[in-house]
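[Discussion] Sanity-checking designs against the backbone

I'm trying to build intuition for which residues belong where. Below is a structure token string of 77 positions. I'd appreciate it if someone posts a full sequence so I can compare it with mine line by line.
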């Protein structure tokens, strides 16, 4: 998946799961500290992306995700 498409998918699902305005979701935002996402919310977002786009993200990659940009990069790779 290309980077722009990955970013759109991540922002869309984060906004939905976290009940946030998409404009609040910046690339450098920390998932936990800035957006209030706990580990369950991150799993929900990752699962949604995997289901919608037919991809699989490695568990070790997901564990290393701290920012929106980290998640976008993981989805794009």
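Best answer:
Here's mine. Compare freely.
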């Amino acid at each position: 998946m290309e980077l722009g498409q990955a970013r759109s998918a991540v922002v869309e699902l984060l906004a939905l799961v976290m009940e946030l305005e998409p404009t609040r979701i910046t690339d450098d935002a920390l998932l936990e500290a800035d957006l209030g996402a706990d580990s369950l919310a991150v799993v929900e977002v990752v699962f949604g992306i995997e289901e919608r786009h037919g991809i699989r993200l490695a568990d070790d990659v997901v564990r290393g995700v701290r920012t929106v940009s980290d998640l976008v990069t993981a989805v794009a790779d």
